[in-house]
């Protein structure tokens, strides 16, 4: 929590639950990433937090934007971002949305399948396209499965055919998994990707860009290596595999731009035990899985919590949200401890919740309003 | 899908994805439940679908309402439902919301812990309260875990203390788990609950009500026994355990009131394979886990799908939503087959999606609008 957030909460006493975003931290994160990986062009993955103040601040700093839908492109352009700084990075697009984006001036599109490439050839003729490839992504806390990307051989074929159909085969993207903790993953991925560059060059197709995706972490409960270490690992891998034939480099950070810029303040609604001999207290907050903390699904993301009673003796707890849904439990298997002195009505602060919270929150599940956010 | 829904879709051609609810089916479900379990008072669990047209129709039919929050109570009263037909059934309530509800005239409240009982004693003096007890709930497709309820011994103590503090210890509730498939669960639960009635009667406290919760199923992909069988099992268990000392009976159906009354129409956005040798096609719809199909979490609820190409040869598929989130996969482990002739742009209908869809949908994750609903 920054001083600015602390001051805001003290002065405004907003109703809980709410998220407070410190825009100066977003700016700091952007500038640091620019410094640590100067050759990379930053496309902010706006799905992480599309608050207009965040888009506007990053836009003014010169950021480009990775978007997932027509809705996101509209939000971005509403903040004065030019279409040439927008990538339509979702590999799953309706053809009418492709045509619309192309008409707006968007010229950079992702794909990972034949059907999507054909849509692009028809509805975004001449656009720059990049193919997402499947890379092995062990080590990520929010793993990516196989939903996106295709096998490298298929990607090579599709890029060749894209050229034949009048598209500009611009590059290749991959994603090592969100909140990736194993730095070697970028090296393994870039090894595969550089092979594709060489193989395609032999058939006369010169790819110009490699898109490293996201995956840079935010600091949750567990220690992560500093961003410097990540950027050095990426830098080393780029040099090792591309040498003096370095392509244009794109990164799509989301979580690492806004995660630690925000904090959710919540209130303890209830503390109880299920029986006289229950070892764990159940602590129910006024925010849960359906109010913005969706990334606690399978207890994947383990947020840091602070309370006004910190410092005293603690005991184990199960942490849950306020809805009547039994799936609305944040941490039951993961060991969490909270002060024994914690009381109903106390504020609990959920740290580093600037990414993947507001937009995940349900419209009005159980009659609870979506998570409110304040950008300061 | 009913004829009315079919006609609506044909005539209006609404943009996908959307949910269409046939209110006549809701009415039919309500009346049938009344007929099959005439001694039970129905408190519709409005969290399943709080569309104002649904609340209004059920309100006119005489239904009472089980609510989870101040927001739900407001929605309910906005449809002309009197406070004496409302139960504040969430065991996790802010004290200021209890006080507000009491002020509105709500007189029936749930609790399952000492802290909550104390809030009720302070802020809803004299109200009827019922204690939720933990029962074993194997057999449910959407299991309830231990989030709600307390051990029967604790419930007995708390009900006794509630009386001492000026509350009216009105009854006991339990929930066998949503989409419960094992009919014997009600018998096992009622055996425990009736013991509590007898034990408390010996100390001079006469409970008046047993609240059977929900758990009655909707018909998804797997066959379920007819509602008649469920109601007979409940009836038999009530008679076996309460005999001629039958208490007032409350049920809180949600899913079984609205589940089969609604249908989501979606569009195929993309069909692809990950490599030339991929055995399964990936079929991406324009609705997914964050657009209303949250109950596919862990592939729990398995919806029935229909397509305009049904009847021809089929092949195995992975089914996914349109967002850039890799968790947005509906069915990957569960075997789903779709026609080989299925094409991008085809409509896919997701049957029996009237419950737990609209309100679960995310505010605007990835820039996609929440699920639209039409009540007809």
TrEMBL record, chains A, B:
Its cofactor is pyridoxal 5'-phosphate. Gene3D superfamilies: Alanine racemase (3.20.20.10), Lyase, Ornithine Decarboxylase, Chain A, domain 1 (2.40.37.10). The keyword Lyase applies. One of its GO terms (molecular function) is ornithine decarboxylase activity. SUPFAM superfamilies: Alanine racemase C-terminal domain-like, PLP-binding barrel. Its EC number is 4.1.1.17. Pathway: Amine and polyamine biosynthesis; putrescine biosynthesis via L-ornithine pathway; putrescine from L-ornithine: step 1/1. The modification N6-(pyridoxal phosphate)lysine is found at residue 47. The keyword Lyase applies. InterPro entries: Ala_racemase/Decarboxylase_C, De-COase2_N, De-COase2_pyr-phos_BS, Orn/DAP/Arg_de-COase, Orn_de-COase, PLP-binding_barrel. One of its GO terms (biological process) is putrescine biosynthetic process from arginine, via ornithine. This is ornithine decarboxylase. It comes from Vineibacter terrae. The lineage of its organism: Bacteria, Pseudomonadati, Pseudomonadota, Alphaproteobacteria, Hyphomicrobiales.
